[in-house]
Model the fold of this input.
Amino acid sequence: MLGEILVILIFVIPILCIVFKPFIVVNEGESVVVERLGRFHRVVGPGMQFLIPLFERLRCVSWCYDVEDRGYRTTATFQDYRIKTTESQCDILPVVCQTKDNITAVVNMVAYYRIDDVKKAVYNIDDLLAGMINELETRLVKIVKLLDHSALNASDLEERIKSEKNKEVWAKWGVELIKCRLQGIQLPESLTNATISSVEEKRRCEIELLTLRAQHDKEMMRLKNEEAIEEQKRQMALLQMKHQLGVEKMENDARLQQLGERAALIKKSGLTEEYFIQQNYSDAWSRLFASGSSPQRLFIPTNFSNFLGSRELLTHVSPEK
Done:
């Protein structure tokens, strides 16, 4: 009896393990769907996972996608029970699109996605990769149809695809569409040459416009500087005028004050006006003779007889003269 048990343990159990595979090792970044009696039971993650023989089995997925080999488009199949949950890449082969202005454009793209819910990715859609590729191609054709050929550029299309993506569809499939990258946009050769010429002409016009704008700004700056200089000159002239008026006003005030003081002294001394007139005459004649040059013509005032009788003349005029 003990020998039969040992034979079973040594020979039968290993054979059963090889045939039924009661355990599996799942790598990091992978998940496996386990079914029990044909129905979904659980999703297992990385590590060693045990199965109940004859009752539990692994669900194998079969996803198809298009590839291009030597210019020919063929279909490849991903068939495995290990499902990657890390960020993956999905190549979208060149898609023929029609623009808004009836120009044929060939666009190829790469999509980056990640499976967040393995159960939805396996059971909610029969072929996940085919569904993703079909959804992206349809959306790309729809977006290009709304644009002119001149508005086709990689960054703009990527932003539109990212903003226009159907989140409900991707969430239903358990997939997160991370980003899309366009690898190329091919237009007809004749249209491409015309586009290049128009781009060069546009660039030349932009350069000329920038040059004219710089010259205009320089001229405006020069005019502003000249206006500033003229304004500064006007301000300086105004300040000098104000200063001159202030000085003249001070001199006039001082002269008036001096005349007032002299008038007060005259009033206080009791002298007559005739005395001061004769004094001014004598001062004038003394300056005339003191200068050392005798005038050719001499003008004598009408009241010179009064001046001759003045004692001041005898005081200021020298005997030699």
